[in-house]
Specification:
With 733 residues, the protein is an alpha+beta fold. The protein folds into 4 domains: 185 residues, Galactose-binding domain-like (Jelly Rolls); 114 residues, Sandwich (Jelly Rolls); 332 residues, Glycosyltransferase; 65 residues, Maltose phosphorylase, domain 3 (Sandwich), CATH 2.60.420.10. Helices cover 26% and strands 29% of the residues. The chain is built from 14 helices and 42 strands. A hairpin with a 2-residue loop joins strand 33 and strand 34.
């Protein structure tokens, strides 16, 4: 029974901005408790305590959803925490709900005040029940956390104690007038109608890192290096005179002279400020997080000792499934960097980056990385939640927002970004066989394809605002927007048709639409079997999207191989990169694919590894060879898009590949591609059926292959064009 639906939203009587407030209720319990269940959520982020003890170990609940439409509530069994006199307290911070960042993102989430709502249902051994609801019998005061903001950080005053308890105010609407109007237009009721059961994965504390070094920079700054870029915060022990103000600035990289570099964080202040109270205390922030490897200690009140600091990674608590290793330690570090890119950017939603004043659910980034992400971790619950918000955020004409949760964005419908609507459910289905995700998302994806269809003339979709092959290196002749638009139009329509067929939905009108677009595409963008736009991305997409004839495939892959070998490196941006190595190695150009993978110079994946990266950079040259930065404007050192190469490592280098016809690895294709520069490659996947593994080693007389097939699953092995069918168990070739 979801009692929270009958509770009231409560808040501090006046808007206290970024200050954190507390709510309190004391309950006398006179009978024996059999069970007690807490349900809670917030317009903001919250923590509940019972008799001073924290309920659960989830961070940043209720997470980030499209708050215009839904707020998720969490349910906890608190039976063991109830005592004769039970004191329930809750802390409430603004979290993602009302943050205001400067510059491009200076559009606050709509809303004027944060609010909390909860119920506790207590069942006694005589069969009776008490239900406690948030209402104006709760009291409220200000927390010792005087300031909290996702981007800017937190301020804590150890000496602050607000004993001015006021009655909590019941709120019927936490929205501004403008947003209320918008909700009325959309027919949305407030407040409890937007409460939904929790979805997704909980964000939790994961790995802990002790300092690698404590040092003073040439500029005299005291810095700690934890050795790993991640999302999280530092727990520290501190003792200073009462009222002493100490601060920590979180940052990703040192500049070329070895000093603190914060320019790439843009307006995000990423600072924890701590006011001491004369006692030794251990502290960590509770309602914010940072993307960082280093911290800068400002006005630290005592000698800085490494043992007083630990860096804690936080991310959505998904099950790890995919592993990769080979004989090249740099490629292994690259894979590890991809894993950290995923961890850092899977904090409740898939974000572009975790450090600067952005950290948004950019649909394009998620779309290019989802296949990789779903091999490395089990992402089904994580993406299912995010995809629900994607559907909520779609405009009436089917336009998919650039960022999800959408919240406040007006523009939508960008090629390669909006296609997250079709590509993401398809990839989740491919990884886990989850047909229900296809069914849930079908109307959203159909709306997106209809959008393109309705905006097309004679089969071609033209116009609109697009990011194109974002951050490509083609100079003055990048892949054109019309080309990419229509390549994605074809791809998304073909996925929609496949999905419709799986779900038993009549798809003939889309088949006709696809045929028409393919015809128009060929007429405009192909000549003599080749792509007119002579770029790596244009060829890679056409090959990967699978609509070329056998003959065209041959000539376009030749074209692609020539484009790569002539310049000797990749030139692809966000959209082309995930497909580039597949397009080469699937069509006979295995060596070229490995050449790109193993290249150490800019541009290439190992360039960042050689430069000490512990995550994937936003730009191929986020840092220049002379140590200077690409730019301060838009330069994240933890952006997962180019990490999509890891899917090639598992699927092609190790050769554990999905069989599209048998989703969820219910049938596996083992088709590894070798290169003489590596002496072994191995990978494993914890599929829903059990462990699948592949390994090859270079021996004196050729390659030795070992494949493991989970119980109840069959596999096809393809080596040097020879096909063998195998069943459960471990097989050597
Ligand atoms: C983000 C990208 C995103 C892009 C849109 C950037 O600011 O960091 O990753 O996809 O905007 O082009």
């Amino acid at each position: 029974m979801d009692h929270i639906l009958n509770a009231k939203w409560i808040t501090y009587p006046k808007n206290v901005g970024e200050a954190v407030c507390e709510f309190r209720k004391t309950v006398d319990i006179s009978k024996k408790v059999v069970s007690a269940t807490l349900q809670a959520t917030a317009q903001g982020v919250y923590i509940v305590y019972i008799n001073g003890e924290r309920v659960g170990n989830d961070i940043l609940t209720p997470g980030w959803t499209d708050f215009r439409f839904r707020v998720l509530y969490q349910t906890y069994d608190v039976t063991d925490m109830i005592t004769e006199k039970t004191v329930i307290t809750a802390e409430l911070a603004q979290g993602w709900r009302m943050h205001k960042t400067k510059g491009w993102f200076e559009r606050p989430m709509k809303g004027t005040n944060k609010a909390f709502i909860a119920s506790i249902a207590i069942t006694y051994d005589d069969g009776t029940e008490d239900i406690i609801y948030t209402d104006n019998t709760w009291t409220t005061c200000l927390s010792a956390t005087r300031y909290s903001d996702i981007y800017n950080g937190e301020t804590y005053d150890a000496d602050f104690n607000d004993d001015n308890y006021l009655p909590a105010k019941i709120v019927t609407c936490a929205y501004s007038t403008e947003a209320e109007e918008e909700m009325v237009v959309k027919g949305i009721e407030y407040p409890t109608d937007i409460l939904c059961k929790h979805e997704g994965e909980f964000v939790r504390e994961k790995e802990r890192f002790d300092p690698l070094s404590v040092f003073t920079t040439p500029n005299g700054e005291t810095v700690i290096d934890f050795g790993q870029n991640l999302s999280g915060y530092v727990e520290f022990s501190i003792k200073g005179e009462k009222g002493h103000k100490a601060s920590i600035r979180y940052f990703e990289e040192l500049d070329k002279d070895g000093n603190v570099y914060v320019e790439n964080l843009r307006s995000a202040k990423t600072t924890v400020t701590y006011y001491c109270d004369g006692e030794r205390r251990t502290f960590k922030p509770k309602f914010t997080f940072f993307g960082y490897r280093y911290i800068h200690l400002i006005d630290w009140p005592e000698e800085v000792k490494a043992e007083n600091f630990v860096s804690i990674a936080i991310y959505s608590d998904m099950k790890r499934t995919g592993y990769f290793e080979c004989s090249d330690k740099d490629v292994n570090r690259l894979f590890e960097n991809v894993v950290w890119g995923q961890r850092s950017n899977f904090v409740d939603i898939p974000t572009d980056c975790p450090q600067r004043d952005e950290r948004r659910g950019w649909t394009g980034d998620a779309q290019v990385f989802i296949r990789t992400a779903s091999l490395i971790y089990d992402t089904e619950r994580f993406f299912r939640k995010w995809l629900h918000d994607l559907s909520y955020g779609q405009s009436a004409d089917g336009g998919v927002p650039h960022v999800v949760p959408n919240s406040d964005w007006i523009d939508n419908g960008a090629m390669g970004w909006a296609d997250a609507a079709t590509i993401c459910p398809w990839q989740i289905y491919q990884a886990y066989g989850s047909k229900w995700v296809l069914a849930e998302q079908f109307s959203s994806m159909r709306k997106w394809v209809d959008y393109m269809r309705n905006h097309s003339i004679d089969g071609l979709w033209l116009g609109g605002g697009h990011f194109a092959d974002w951050l490509n290196l083609d100079g003055d002749t990048p892949t054109s927007k019309p080309y990419l638009q229509n390549a994605y139009f074809i791809y998304s329509t073909s996925l929609l048709i496949k999905i419709g067929n799986i779900l038993g939905i009549e798809m003939s009108e889309y088949e006709q639409c696809l045929e028409k677009t393919q015809k128009a595409f060929r007429a405009r963008f192909m000549k003599d079997g080749k792509i007119v736009e002579n770029t790596q991305t244009s060829c890679a997409e056409a090959l990967y999207f699978g609509f070329l004839t056998e003959e065209e495939t041959k000539s376009v892959s030749e074209q692609l191989n020539t484009l790569v070998t002539e310049c000797g490196h990749l030139k692809t941006g966000f959209l082309g990169t995930p497909y580039l190595l597949h397009a080469l190695s699937d069509n006979g150009y295995v060596k070229t694919a490995y050449d790109l993978l193993l290249r150490h110079e800019f541009p290439g994946w190992l360039y960042s590894v050689d430069n000490g990266a512990t995550t994937i950079w936003e730009h191929w040259d986020s840092r220049n060879p002379d140590g200077s930065m690409w730019s301060a404007e838009m330069n994240s050192f933890n952006h997962y898009a180019y990490g999509s190469v890891a899917e090639w490592l598992i699927e092609k280098a190790a050769g554990i590949t999905h069989d599209e016809e048998h989703a969820g690895f219910s049938h596996i294709i083992f088709k590894p591609v070798t290169d003489e520069r590596l002496t072994f490659v191995k990978a494993s996947l914890d599929t829903r059926y059990g462990k699948a593994a592949s390994e090859w080693t270079k021996e004196a007389d050729g390659y030795k292959y070992t494949f493991t097939v989970p119980a109840g699953v069959t596999a096809t092995v393809i080596i040097d064009g020879k096909t063998t069918e195998i069943g459960e168990g471990t097989h050597t070739f």
